C-alpha cells in the first residue's frame, strides 16, 4: 500500500511547520447578518479558505470586523442596503495552537504579493489557510485587508467551539458607522 499523499505544497507545509505556535486568549469581533449565530462558519470561498472548508473570520478590533463586512456588502451592490440587519458580537476565545502570520513580510516569504494584499487575489492565501488547517492549528492571526488591524481566522474542525463565548452583542447602525468612518 502506498503512503497517503497530501495535495498541499510540501515546501509550504515545511515553512509553516517551522513557525512557532502561540496561544491566543482575548476578545474577537464578528459581524453576522440576520439571526445567524456568530459561531456559524463562513462556508463560501474567502481569502483564507476554499469553498469546501469552513472558517470563522473574526477581527481583533471592532472597526476591523465592521470594515471587512462593509467592504464585501458594498462591493456586491451599487447602493449600500438601507434595511440590512447586522449584529456585531464581542466574543472571548482561548486557543492553544495558533499560528501568527500577521507580519506581511512573512506572508511575502510564503508567496503572498504584499503590494496587492487588499485585492481579491486569494489563490496563495487560500493555499496557506488550507495548509494551516491541514496542520491542525486551531486559528491563525493575519493582517486585516480593510483596516489597520489584525484578524483571527478560526478552524472549527480543529478546535473546541466551547472555548469561544459570547461577551456581548450590538445591532449595527451602518449609517452611523459609515458616517464615523467618513464613507459616503
How many beta-strand elements? 6
Cα separation of the termini: 61 Å
Categorize the overall geometry: globular
Strand content bin: 25-35%
Q: Major beta sheet, specifics?
A: 6 strands, mixed
Q: Write down the Rg.
A: 17 Å
Count helical runs: 5
Which percent range fits the helix content?
25-40%
Instruction: Kindly give the count of domains.
Output: 1
Encode the helix/strand succession as letters. Answer: HEEHEHHEEEH
Residue windows where pLDDT falls under 50 for at least 5 positions: 1-5
Structural class: alpha+beta
The chain-level mean pLDDT equals: 92
Write the layout of secondary structure elements.
Elements: H1 10-17, E1 21-33, E2 56-59, H2 62-76, E3 86-100, H3 104-109, H4 123-134, E4 139-143, E5 150-154, E6 164-171, H5 174-180
In short:
This protein has 184 residues and is of the alpha+beta class.
Q: What would you say this structure looks like, in words?
A:
With 184 residues, the protein is an alpha+beta fold. It has one domain (10-174). The protein has five helices and six strands; from the N terminus they run αββαβααβββα. Strands 1, 2, 3, 4, 5 and 6 form a six-stranded mixed beta sheet that branches. The longest helix is centred in the middle third of the chain and has 15 residues, at 62-76. The protein starts with 9 loop residues before the first helix and ends with a helix.
Amino acid at each position: 500500500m502506498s503512503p497517503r499523499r497530501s495535495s498541499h505544497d510540501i515546501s509550504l507545509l515545511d515553512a509553516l511547520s517551522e513557525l512557532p505556535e502561540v496561544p491566543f486568549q482575548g476578545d474577537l469581533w464578528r459581524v453576522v447578518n440576520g439571526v445567524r449565530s456568530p459561531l456559524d462558519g463562513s462556508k463560501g470561498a474567502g481569502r483564507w479558505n476554499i469553498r469546501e472548508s469552513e472558517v470563522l473570520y473574526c477581527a481583533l478590533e471592532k472597526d476591523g470586523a465592521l470594515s471587512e463586512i462593509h467592504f464585501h456588502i458594498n462591493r456586491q451592490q451599487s447602493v449600500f442596503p438601507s434595511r440590512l440587519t447586522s449584529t456585531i458580537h464581542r466574543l472571548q476565545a482561548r486557543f492553544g495552537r495558533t499560528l501568527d502570520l500577521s507580519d506581511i513580510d512573512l506572508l511575502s516569504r510564503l508567496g503572498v504579493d504584499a503590494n496587492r494584499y487588499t485585492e481579491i487575489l486569494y489563490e496563495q492565501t487560500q493555499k496557506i489557510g488550507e495548509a494551516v488547517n491541514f496542520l491542525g492549528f486551531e486559528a491563525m492571526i493575519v493582517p486585516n485587508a480593510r483596516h489597520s488591524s489584525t484578524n483571527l481566522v478560526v478552524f472549527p474542525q480543529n478546535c473546541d467551539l466551547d472555548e469561544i463565548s459570547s461577551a456581548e452583542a450590538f445591532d449595527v447602525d451602518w449609517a452611523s458607522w459609515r458616517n464615523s468612518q467618513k464613507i459616503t
